[in-house]
Amino acid sequence: MGIPAWVWFTVAAVAGVAGFALLATDRAQRTARNRERRRWAALRGWQFEETDHVLPTRWEAGAIAYYGTGLARDVVAGSTFTADGRRQVYVLDHETGGKVNSVLVGVRCRRALSVVIELWLSTVPFQRDNDKMPMPDLLGPVGSRYAFVTDVPAARKIITPDLIDAAEEIGGDVTVVWLENDWVLAAAPPNSSPARLERLLRDIGELADVIDPFDPDPSEREEPVAEDDEGGEVYRPSFGRKQP
Question: Where is this region: Disordered (predicted)?
């Protein structure tokens, strides 16, 4: 005995309603996150951009290599003070395949490193198949994380007890922290609140201070720019253009 047509119609209708509800919920969450990120940027005196296709191409390692280049959503760009001076920062939703997989937080150093260092939580399946950026060599445990590096001797000089201590403060919700060129970056969970991102920015800033200490030579200091209400300085980037 065949199943009546009305049963199939009912199943299809229920599935359609469920799919629509799921889409509406996702869109509502997306809109709420967009408003929250936009308000946070305005409060800090930073720039906000809804979408940037070029920004993720600045990096190749860490979460970018694991998930793919993708695109940046709800991007916040600015600069803030760390203990060793003013540093450029980015915060963005990293989207691949139409899904936000993480919130990337980046703090820029004054000098580029000659080695890439990735610090992964041991609970993360960090192996990847990426011809452009294959998995670096395993160096070993660094605190509660495992270090993968592109140059073992060079990395050993950089991974000091101070760096390990700074990395340990970042938190177990951050799957990977990595050092690439003149950036320190971290991948936080999707929907991380501005308060959590503020803490993560401070922690990443401390890690940047360890590997890129302040040079007291006045001739190398940058000219000051406008300050925001919290004492941080405002950076005015050009979205959509890959910077050197």
Answer: 210-244
pLDDT in tens, 30-69: 577 788 999 999 999 999 999 999 999 999 999 999 999 9
Closest of 63, 143, 145 to residue 106, by C-alpha: 63
φ/ψ of 93, rounded to 5, equals -80, 125
Are the C-beta atoms of 56 and 69 separated by less than 8 Å?
A: yes
Cβ count within 10 A of residue 172 = 10
The letter for the amino acid at 127 is Q
Tell me the pTM. 0.76
Q: Look-up: residue for tokens 């959503």?
A: 73
CA–CA separation, 102 vs 136, rounded Å? 21
Residues 179-209: pLDDT tens digits? 999 999 999 999 899 999 999 999 999 999 9
Decide: 83 and 46 in contact? Cβ < 8 Å.
no
172: tokens are 């177990």
Q: Which helix (H) or strand (E) holds 95?
A: strand 85-96
| Cβ(194)–Cβ(40) below 8 Å | yes
Tell me the helices (H) and strands (E) count for the chain, helix number first. Answer: 5, 9
Residue 167's SS3 state is: helix
Instruction: Return the number of other C-beta atoms located less than 10 Å from residue 77's C-beta.
Output: 24
Residue 196 C-alpha from the chain's centroid: 13
Identify the residue whose tokens are 């610090």. 119
Tokens of 65: 């290599």
The two tokens of residue 241 are 């253009």
